[in-house]
Amino acid sequence: MRFHMGLARLLPRPNIRPASEPAPGETQVIVLANQKGGVAKTTTTLNLGVAFAEQGFKVLLVDLDPQGNLTMSQGLNPDTIEHSMFDVLVHRMPISQVIETREVDIAVSSIDLAGADMALSSQIGRERALEKGLAPVRDNYDFILIDTPPSLGLLTINAFVAATGVLVPVQTEYLSLRGLVQLENTLSMVRENLNPKVSIIGIVPTMYDKRITHSREADEILRENFGDLVYKTRIRKTIRFAEAPVKGTSVLAYEPAGEAAGMYRDLAKEVLNGQKPRQHA
Ligand SMILES: Nc1ncnc2c1ncn2[C@@H]1O[C@H](COP(=O)(O)OP(=O)(O)O)[C@@H](O)[C@H]1O
Ligand SMILES: [Mg+2]
């Protein structure tokens, strides 16, 4: 069965890669988003970020999910950290106070963040809290990667407003094209009202298993509907992705020569598309 539904038309081509081509030296702020949980948003944020860092880029990861999985995946305990992105968004605390340095820099999250939607909702400029929070450190980095919760709520909208591009991990097992349309509709609204530049820069097929017909079909359907927007690199299914976070590391540190690490290095190469690190003073 095929689900064309004119999806490609809903993702207007002119807004795709070109809009996200960075000016030389401009920090790229990439949001990992998909309102479905368990599609490898957090896994991709960490491992893509570490793969960029291996290439010499300066990288900040921002954990914007109250579950704090990204924070945990770098060996930090969200239950015991003192301040988190909640304080940055709601109390305008300088983001430098919640950045920890592990494999890369990470602005940490804790369960407090679950209250951010509510706390921000009555504030003027509630959609720009993250953009404002990032401003003082933005130029220190080549890439800022933002991990988002599985919803299109105010936290994710804040991420879209701060972003130069959106990267969408899609699980090739339970392909939700309808979810992609919803995501694109939200992005259209953000473009109209808050950030004219933001668009989907790429779709990453995740948890791919070529032995499973359904997985191959889902991958084909994605490519039929979204063409070049879908990266050639497929992130295959492997247990390494569950093992590494338990040790508090990326798969690149956990098994540097392993195939899991290789897949994210390949993805990084595609996203970079020839860009070289700029010189930092
Ligand atoms: N390529 C993969 N193969 C197997 N398991 C994976 C893969 N990518 C992620 N996982 C595992 O799947 C679960 C969900 O991934 P996660 O990155 O937390 O998704 P999300 O952030 O979208 O909810 C985690 O337990 C993670 O370790
Ligand atoms: Mg997650």
Strand content: 5-15%
Please summarize the sheet with the most strands: 7 strands, mixed
CATH hierarchy, class: Alpha Beta
Spatial order of strands in the largest sheet: 3-4-2-5-1-6-7
| Total discrete domains | 1
Please name the defining characteristics of this protein.
281 residues; alpha/beta; Rossmann fold; seven-stranded mixed sheet; 13 helices; globular; binds adenosine-5'-diphosphate; binds magnesium ion
Short recap of the structure:
The chain is of the alpha/beta class and 281 residues long. It is 41% helix and 12% strand. The longest helix is centred in the middle third of the chain and has 17 residues, at 177-193.
Please specify the SSE layout and strand pairing:
Blueprint: H1 7-10, H2 17-20, E1 28-32, H3 41-54, E2 59-63, H4 69-72, H5 85-91, E3 99-101, E4 105-107, H6 116-121, H7 129-138, E5 143-147, H8 154-162, E6 165-171, H9 177-193, E7 200-206, H10 213-226, H11 240-246, H12 251-254, H13 259-272
Parallel strand pairs: 1-5, 1-6, 2-4, 2-5, 6-7
Antiparallel strand pairs: 3-4
Structural summary, described in words:
With 281 residues, the chain is of the alpha/beta class. Helices cover 41% and strands 12% of the residues. The chain contains 13 helices and 7 strands. The protein has helices spanning 7-10, 17-20, 41-54, 69-72, 85-91, 116-121, 129-138, 154-162, 177-193, 213-226, 240-246, 251-254, 259-272, and strands spanning 28-32, 59-63, 99-101, 105-107, 143-147, 165-171, 200-206. It has a 7-stranded mixed sheet, sandwiched between helices. Strand 6, helix 9 (177-193) and strand 7 (200-206) form a beta-alpha-beta unit. Helix 3 packs across helix 13 and helix 7 runs parallel beside helix 8 (154-162). The longest helix is centred in the middle third of the chain and has 17 residues, at 177-193. Mean pLDDT is 92; it is low at 1-6 and 12-20. Magnesium ion binds at residues 41-42, 65, 69, 147.
